[in-house]
Specification:
By secondary structure, this protein is α+β, with helices and mostly antiparallel strands. It has 11 helices and 4 strands. The chain has a 4-stranded antiparallel beta sheet, sandwiched between helices.
């Protein structure tokens, strides 16, 4: 199409929104609601994923060395732990630090150790090992156990498995919600375009009769669908921010109990808006092309039959 025709058809597409203002308003409202629910699902996933990461960071492996290990043995063991892989951090805990922790936890009862001249020598040097990928937790623990001079390994593999299951479940649930709402949005756009075409069926028939191409007829409806989608995306972002702000205190209380913090909306705002616009444009494009194509085929069949 020529640039002049393209500008004309684009203006016509935007004008259609005003002509069919009530249907356009209903479409924007329903599509905006779908996008808000998609946004809620995304924010829920982001917060739970962050919470799981925080819990995972606390789910460390405690590695205790043999009491008879020399300084050379300790250095060799530390190097071996670093070579295990899937480890994001290793913190050495000396006998003195461990002894201080023990006495602090005993409180007044710590006097028993002092009265019996029990010093830090009965405690082993240990390492606090942080695992990077919790899905490989058991594999990492098995490798750590094989390190020379390791006397004991304290870990919680059950918690690691549960955390990974939670993450997977939340991912699938949120993905399912997003796909379902995407289909709903697609249905809304498609039906909006079909109703608009029905109200302009005589105009379309005249354009077909004078030789207008399918692309010429499609373009205004495609622009109409995309414009409705973009308006819905911007409004949905504002509504989503308001909901997240109002629900922030309640969510923070729930996540705070588990030691988590909420993700900052501003950190994800542009990503969410981009996702909203992308979903809107894709659904508008697919819905418009599907509806218009079906309608034009039906019109073509009618023309052929009359001919």
């Amino acid at each position: 199409m020529k640039n002049r025709n393209l500008r004309y058809l684009t203006r016509e597409g935007i004008k259609n929104i005003g002509v069919n203002r009530f249907m356009s308003l209903a479409s924007v409202t329903v599509l905006m609601s779908c996008l808000v629910m998609i946004g809620c699902a995304v924010l829920l996933y982001l917060n739970i994923d962050k919470l799981v990461e925080n819990i995972e960071a606390q789910n460390v492996i405690m590695v205790f060395l043999d009491l008879r290990a020399t300084e050379e043995d300790e250095a060799a063991a530390e190097e071996s732990l670093k070579a295990v892989g899937n480890i994001s951090g290793i913190e050495r805990i000396s006998r003195e630090e461990a002894y201080s922790t023990v006495t602090d936890s005993l409180g007044d009862n710590a006097q028993f150790l002092l009265d019996n001249d029990i010093d830090e020598s009965f405690l082993p040097v240990s390492y606090r090992v942080t695992v990077e990928d919790m899905a490989r937790f058991k594999e990492t623990v098995a490798k750590v156990r094989q390190v020379e001079n390791v006397l004991h390994v304290r870990e919680n593999s059950d918690l690691a498995v549960r955390l990974e299951k939670i993450r997977t479940a939340v991912t699938y649930v949120c993905l399912g919600i997003i796909i379902l709402l995407f289909l709903v949005a697609l249905f809304i756009i498609a039906n909006t375009i079909r109703i608009t075409m029905y109200t302009r069926r005589k105009e379309i028939s005249i354009m077909k009769a004078v030789g207008a191409t399918n692309s010429f007829i499609r373009w205004p409806f495609l622009i109409e669908g995309i414009t409705i989608g973009v308006i819905s995306a911007v409004l949905a972002l504002g509504v989503l921010y308001l909901i997240y702000y109002l629900a922030g205190d309640a969510l923070l209380t729930i996540f705070g109990i588990l030691g988590g913090k909420l993700v900052e909306f501003k950190d994800w705002m542009f990503w969410i808006l981009g996702g909203f616009v992308a979903v809107s444009i894709v659904t508008a494009g697919i819905g418009s092309i599907f509806s218009i194509g079906k309608y034009l085929r039906e019109q073509g069949s009618v023309v052929d039959a009359n001919g």
